[in-house]
Design brief:
Elements (H helix, E strand, L loop, with lengths): L12 E6 L3 H13 L3 E7 L3 H8 L20 E4 L6 H10 L3 E4 L10 H9 L2 E3 L8 H8 L3 E10 L8 H5 L11 E6 L1 H7 L5 H9 L7 E6 L6 E9 L3 E8 L10 H13 L8
Parallel strand pairs: 1-2, 1-3, 3-4, 4-5, 6-8
Antiparallel strand pairs: 6-9, 7-8, 9-10
Helix pairs in contact: 1-9, 3-4, 7-8
The chain binds NADPH dihydro-nicotinamide-adenine-dinucleotide phosphate (NDP) and oxaloacetate ion.
Family: Belongs to the L-aspartate dehydrogenase family.
EC number: 1.4.1.21
Pathway: Cofactor biosynthesis; NAD(+) biosynthesis; iminoaspartate from L-aspartate (dehydrogenase route): step 1/1
Length: about 280
């Protein structure tokens, strides 16, 4: 069975990767190895020379360009850069009616106008499941009535240290010996206090009942090696709970599965058989 749409009718999707860290490098590598229906078109990073070195083992030569130069080269951009760059990366693609896959989901809350730009120009923002689990079930439940969504995140100390919320509130976690709850609030608050750690909570809230009604606890746990997220949903169609234990990538804040989620998303965009909503 062919796993790609008719190639003559559908030329390969040109994919730009904005940010060449833990997530971007893996996506670039898989695209270079060959992802049916997709091709790596361009890459952007802060340090261009280091990016060239990181790409030197790839089979194809890929242009390394400034963020502003990505749009003409690609049909879709994967945003996997620091959160504050989201508008600079996304806006040109959305204005051209193209697709933006967003990993820094927390930044959408402070740049909601991007959704209007997408609506106006026929573009699309895709928030993949990323480091989380079960957003298909949550979006399905949201077609009915969801009563509550609760998320509990437990992270190793290395996955949280340096977060602005901890610094501003003088919460010292580097020497803890027992798990401590460092935050109890909403994904909207966590997006500000933990911009590089809790994109998953914002993604969950956008799938379900929004960033103000979803509740979130964050624990720092010195005995953990994996970022662990548990979700509990109660709705008029189903009650469910799910959890995932993420093996960290080269970036201890980022689970390995994050890049794989984007690759699965890209694969679905050109597949004749698509599984999962
Ligand atoms: N939605 C989800 O489930 C998840 C989301 N994330 C989020 O995804 C994003 C990427 O994560 P991760 O790969 O681990 O992050 P990294 O810190 O490993 O990589 C970030 C990359 O962005 C690049 N960058 C910095 N400034 C610029 C610039 N001005 N122009 C172009 N590139 C730039 C850096 O370049 P250089 O290497 O040259 O410094 C680096 O390659 C983060 O926002 C993270 O919070 C992470 C995990 C899960
Ligand atoms: O939410 C994030 O950005 C990252 C995360 O928790 C994980 O990788 O498990």
């Amino acid at each position: 069975m062919s796993t790609v749409l008719n190639a003559a009718a559908h030329p390969p999707l040109r994919v730009a990767v904005a940010g060449l860290g833990a997530v971007g490098q893996k996506i670039a590598q898989v695209l270079d190895e060959g992802l049916p229906g997709c091709k790596l078109a361009a890459v952007s990073a802060n340090d261009r020379q280091r990016a060239e070195e990181r790409l030197s083992h790839l089979k194809q030569r890929v242009p390394v360009v400034a963020i502003e130069e990505l749009e003409p080269l690609a049909d879709v951009v994967v945003e996997c850069a620091p959160a504050q760059l989201l508008p600079t990366i996304a806006e040109p693609f959305l204005k051209a009616g193209k697709t933006v896959i967003v990993l820094s989901a927390g930044a959408i809350l402070s740049h909601e106008a991007l959704v209007e730009v997408a609506r106006e120009h026929g573009g699309q923002i895709i928030v993949p499941t990323g480091a989380l689990i079960g957003l298909d079930a949550v979006t399905a439940a949201a077609e009915g009535t969801i009563h509550s969504v609760r998320m509990i995140t437990r992270k190793p100390v290395k996955g949280l240290v340096g977060a602005p919320y901890l610094v501003q509130n003088n919460i010292e976690i580097e020497h803890i010996r027992e798990p401590i709850r460092v935050f109890n609030g909403t994904p909207r608050e966590a997006a500000i206090g933990f911009p590089a750690n809790l994109n998953v909570a914002v993604a969950l809230s956008l799938a379900g009942i929004g960033p103000d009604r979803t509740t979130l606890e964050i624990w720092a746990d010195p005995s953990l090696k994996r970022n662990t997220h548990r979700i509990e949903v109660d709705s008029d169609s189903a009650s469910f709970s799910m959890s995932i234990e993420n093996i960290p990538s080269d970036n201890p804040k980022t689970g390995r599965i994050t890049a794989l989620s984007v690759i699965a998303c890209l694969r679905k965009m050109r597949a004749p058989l698509r599984v999962g909503s």
